[in-house]
Amino acid sequence: MKLAVVSNINMDPLKLHLKKMNAPTPYFCAYGQHLLELIDRKSALYNLDLGTLFVHLDAEELLKDDFFRLPREAQVDAYLEELLAALHCFCGEHPEVSVIISSIVLPPFSFVSYLDGNSDYNPSAIEERMNRELREFTAGHRNVFILDFHRLVRLHGYRAFHDEKYWYLGRIKYTQAGFKTLAEDLASLLYAIRGSAKKVLVLDLDNTLWGGVLGEEGPNGVRLSEDGAGKAYRDFQKCIRALRSVGVILALNSKNNEHEVRQFMEQSTMMVLKYDDFVARKINWENKVDNLNEIASDLNLSTDCMVLIDDNPAERALVRKYLPGVGVPEFPPDAAMLKTWFLSEVVYRWFPRVRLTKEDLKKSEQYERNVRRNTLGDRLNLQDFIASLQIELKLIKNDPQTVTRIAQLTQKTNQFNLTTHRYTDADIAHYMESDRIAIYGLEYEDKFGMEGIVGAAVIKCHGDSAHISDLLLSCRVLGRNVEYGFLIEMLRDLQDSGIKRITAEYVASPRNVIAKEFYANCGMCLAGVGKFEKDTDSVLSHLQKIYSNHHANGVK
Amino acid sequence: MILAEALDVQLIGLTGETRLDDIKNLDSFQVIMLFMAIEETFGIQFTMDEIATMKTIGDILNWISGKLNR
């Protein structure tokens, strides 16, 4: 799915930087033609297999000669209104395309210099107004996201970002450093929109979370304090704690003696992170690659969702070589840089997000509970174990408040996912509005706590027949027959609506082999490769026989 | 070589006398990208007027060593 770039300036230099990052080569609309391309249905934009549209307006160029005149309100806003009207038209025709639009940045100069800050002539006031309009536009369009261009210019400074010489020589507006930053930010934002951000942050200890080596210098020798380098490490821990609070799972991978680490972490008054903040801890003398694989298995996740932060270049090289899916950023040589490095190289690069759900906020607790549940499971047999969990399931149908969570599930769930279609918020909202399509969410609670929505399904109806287009369940609740409970509740609801026949399909993917026999296990008949069908009554009675010990609160 | 990296251009048979205008598949936009890459790689700065005088590969090389020796 292609990326198209629309701009009023020449954005070709982006191509080179995107290529270096192994991002796809974008299609560039002829610059200056942006409004036309957005409205004209015969334009390339409408006829490409477009996944994302990036709209970048250079505000200074938008003003043209008005920059040299005192800009009057109506003119400046008129340019923006024109663009938003054209975009609205485009979004209407293509609700499935993600649109990214840069915020407005004016040069930090005014011909009336220090005139009253609230006047119409002040570039900041004009920027504020235009960006507010942009924000209102995104609030009204689910698939539109703002790229904070102002933030990028601030990072470099206007002077380092803009290139006067090459503007006059060849209409290249920004420096290579500017284009590089823009390309990186665009790639991170795309990563976030697609829900591909990493999930787990794995950390080393010595010279990473504190200065010095605990085993060598002892608890009183390591640098972790309110001064100098010690403070830099403390601030670094605060950054990590902040990331944890928005849903990133923490793990430890350190060559140390476990009891020494535990003692230090529990007794030091300067530690910000607690021993229990880490859901998985591999503190031993094994190699770090094996440890990472074990952490992945403990959490029931792939190493591809992990990021490793380690000050040791040899360890970083080892992990990059044997686990290429793990994100391994370079580590700053100076502890003073830790905070800004973490924000730009770790948070924005590997854990970017465009949404935050209430499930996200409780991620660490959920994973911890899961590790506890899995330990419980070892000691009892399966049926007893499931019964002992006292699972309660609740079906939620076509509820707009669940759109974001359900879309997120379709993007992240790989194992128990029968067809692996990825949907955005806009897709799910669109389906909910259709009479023929039902979106089900499954809420899960057991004696350890409430998990929120852990399953989702997309059902397409036609007459008295229903097709299960998507059925998925979070890996956190696998192995408890919840998938059968989910299907039972949905079928009951569909039966009430007059559905007599069910069809379904299984589409193989690299990671969903565990779902292959699901429909067969439900008593459905094979009707082609990966295709199943059966009448609703038969499936229900089959399921009720094999799965008799769940409780459910019916459909909301 | 900076040329190849900056521009994805094939380096075949370029000499000091080769005129920039004569290099196949090298358009004016790419020439700009080339100068930007040279400045960054060598840590030097050209003015607009200096760039305007550079017509051949040899001219560019002379300017680069001039700036570096200063």
Class by alpha and beta content of chain A: alpha/beta
Q: How is the biggest beta sheet of chain B arranged?
A: none
Give the total of beta strands of chain B.
0
- Overall mean confidence score, pLDDT of chain A: 87
CATH first level of chain B: which class? Mainly Alpha
Examine the secondary-structure arrangement and name the CATH architecture of the largest domain in chain A: 3-Layer(aba) Sandwich
Shape field of chain A: flat
Please write the CATH class name of the largest domain in chain A: Alpha Beta
Query: What is the CATH architecture assignment of chain B?
Result: Orthogonal Bundle
- Count of structural domains of chain B: 1
Quaternary assembly: heterodimer
Q: Cα-atom Rg of chain A, whole angstroms?
A: 27 Å
Total domains of chain A, how many?
3
Intertermini distance of chain B: 23 Å
Name the CATH superfamily classification of the largest domain in chain A: SGNH hydrolase
Fold and architecture overview:
The complex is a heterodimer of chains A (556) and B (70). Chain A has 556 residues and is an alpha/beta fold. Chain A is built from 24 helices and 18 strands. The radius of gyration of chain A is 27 Å and the shape is flat. Chain A starts with a strand and ends with a strand. In chain A, 36% of the residues are buried. Chain B is mainly alpha-helical and 70 residues long. Helices cover 57% and strands 0% of the residues of chain B. Chain B is globular, with a radius of gyration of 11 Å. The model of chain B has no long low-confidence stretch (mean pLDDT 77). Chains A and B meet through helix 9 of A and helix 2 of B.
